[in-house]
Structure formats: C-alpha cells, structure tokens
Amino acid sequence: MFSHVFMGVSDFDRALAFYRPVMAALGLQERFCEPERPWAGWHAESGQRPLFVIARPFEGVQAPGNGQMVAFAARSRNQVDDVHRLATSLGGADEGAPGLRPEYHAHYYGAYFRDPDGNKLCVACHQPEA
What we know:
It is globular and about 45 Å long. The protein is built from 2 helices and 8 strands; from the N terminus they run βαββββαβββ. By secondary structure, it is α/β, with parallel strands linked by helices. Strands 1-4-3-2 form a 4-stranded mixed beta sheet, with helices on one face. β2 and β3 form a beta hairpin.
C-alpha cells in the first residue's frame, strides 16, 4: 500500500542515533544512509518497500504533532515492550506504556513514544498472547 513514510527531523545525527537501534530492534534493515544529504531509510527483510525514511525536510519546516503518527508492526508483545523501553532510554518521550488497548480490538497490544524531535511513533502487536 505505501511506498514510503517520511519523518522530518531537525537534527539528523541525533535522530540517526535514536532510529538506528529502534529500527534494529524492530528487525528492519538499513537500506541507505547519506549524512551529507542528510537522510536514511529502512525496510523489512521481505523487500525494498515500503521504506521508513528520516531526513531534514527540504523546506526546513518541522512541525510534529499529535495529528500524525507512524505505527510499526511488532512480532510479539515482548518486542513491543523491548522497543518502547529502548526508545525511551535513547531520549524518546513516553506517550503510552505498553499494554492492551481493547478499544481498538481484543488483541491490540501497543506502546507509544515520541522521538527526540517530537514525532509520535507506535509499536503494535495484533496477535493474541502466546
């Protein structure tokens, strides 16, 4: 469905230090990183797309907010816990501890956090507890 998701960042080096370990914890592979541009992108092992891209916006405008959020699929509830813990240890702000959110569906287990620029992210597992 998606070609790519673009997340604007104000400090590329700080963002890269945050996203590299978070993406690795999600099992996503770094496809490219060009600090001189600056931008970097990750994809799943299964293919080249969709991509998750971080970059300094061309227009130079950064306006993170609650109206936008990117949600990553997790393989397990433990992975949700691990990624949330990692993200907050790397300077991310907690926006919702890991847990069931039955208002979405019976097995929705998610966690929410913001990156150092304030972009809102989610990690969610849609499987029943093992």
